[in-house]
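Researcher: I'd like a candidate sequence for this fold, 277 residues long. If you have to choose between options at a position, lean toward the conservative one.
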C-alpha cells in the first residue's frame, strides 16, 4: 500500500495559510490559530514555528501575557495566569524580590519594607528578638540572651588579668609554675563558655638572654597557657596567642625585682554581656 501526503493549496497552487500568520500550513505547527492568538505575533523559527509568541519563556503566550517582557529573575518564582510575577502574600512585592513572601494579613497591616535587605517583610520586624528592628539592625542574628546596643550589636565586657613572677614562669622556663596553674584554675572557674567571645593570651619575658631567644620563649609560654586553658574546658577556637618577648617591660630590668615583674602573662577576656531575665 502506498501512502500519499497531500498538501492543500489554493487556486493559484500556493500552500494554504489557514490562520493568516504568514507561515504556510505545511510548516505551521499551529496552523489553526485564531485571530487573537496571532495578534502578538508567532514564532517564525524553531520547533514552535507558527505558534503564538512567548517572548519571555514563561509558558504564557504573549497574547494572554500582561507582562510579556519578564526577565529570567522576574519569572524565577513563577508567574500568574496573566504572565506576571507571583505575589503570594499580596503585599505588592513580587516573590522574586520578597524576603518574606508568605506574610499573613496581620503581619503587614502596618506595611512592609519596600527596599533593602528586608524588602517585603513587615515594618518593625525583629527576627533576632534583640529589641532593634531589622531595618536598623547592623548585626542581624544576634543571640537573644545577650545585651545589644542601639545598633543591634552585642555588648561585650573586657577583663584584663595579669600574673607575673612565681605566678607565671620561672626565669628561662616555659613550663607554668604551680602557682600559675592555681591562678588559671580560679580564672577558668569564673568563665562561662556560653558567653565567652575570645581570650587573648599575651606573654612577656625579662631582658636576660638574646632577643631571638626571648621571642621563642615567649611564644612557647603563650602556647602553654593556651593549652592549659583548653585542657580545662575553654574552646580552642576562642583562644588567640601573642608572644611579645622583652619589648614591653612594665618596669626596668636592672633589678631582680623588676625582672620578676616583667616575666608575666596577661589574659584579655572578652565576653558577651548577659541579658537580664
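Model: Candidate sequence:
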Amino acid at each position: 500500500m502506498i501512502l500519499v501526503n497531500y498538501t492543500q493549496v489554493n487556486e493559484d497552487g500556493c500552500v494554504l495559510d489557514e490562520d493568516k500568520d504568514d507561515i504556510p500550513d505545511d510548516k505551521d505547527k499551529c496552523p489553526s490559530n485564531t485571530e487573537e492568538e496571532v495578534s502578538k505575533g508567532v514564532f517564525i523559527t524553531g520547533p514552535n514555528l507558527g505558534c503564538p509568541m512567548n517572548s519571555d519563556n514563561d509558558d504564557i503566550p504573549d497574547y494572554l501575557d500582561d507582562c510579556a517582557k519578564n526577565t529570567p529573575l522576574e519569572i524565577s518564582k513563577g508567574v500568574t495566569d496573566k504572565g506576571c510575577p507571583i505575589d503570594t502574600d499580596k503585599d505588592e512585592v513580587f516573590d522574586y524580590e520578597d524576603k518574606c513572601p508568605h506574610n499573613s494579613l496581620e503581619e503587614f497591616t502596618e506595611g512592609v519594607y519596600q527596599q533593602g535587605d528586608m524588602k517585603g517583610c513587615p515594618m518593625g520586624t525583629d527576627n533576632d528578638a534583640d529589641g532593634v528592628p531589622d531595618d536598623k539592625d547592623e548585626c542581624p542574628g544576634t543571640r537573644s540572651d545577650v545585651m545589644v546596643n542601639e545598633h543591634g550589636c552585642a555588648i561585650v565586657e573586657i577583663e584584663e588579668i595579669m600574673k607575673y613572677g612565681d605566678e607565671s614562669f620561672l626565669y628561662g622556663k616555659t613550663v607554668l609554675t604551680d602557682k600559675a596553674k592555681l591562678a588559671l584554675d580560679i580564672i577558668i572557674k569564673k568563665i562561662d563558655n556560653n558567653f565567652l567571645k575570645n581570650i587573648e593570651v599575651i606573654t612577656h619575658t625579662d631582658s636576660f638572654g638574646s632577643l631571638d631567644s626571648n621571642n621563642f620563649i615567649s611564644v612557647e609560654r603563650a602556647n602553654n597557657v593556651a593549652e592549659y586553658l583548653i585542657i580545662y574546658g575553654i574552646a580552642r577556637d576562642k583562644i588567640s596567642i601573642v608572644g611579645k618577648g622583652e619589648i614591653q617591660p612594665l618596669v626596668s630590668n636592672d633589678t631582680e625585682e623588676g625582672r620578676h615583674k616583667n616575666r608575666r602573662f596577661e589574659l584579655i577576656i572578652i565576653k558577651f554581656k548577659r541579658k537580664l531575665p
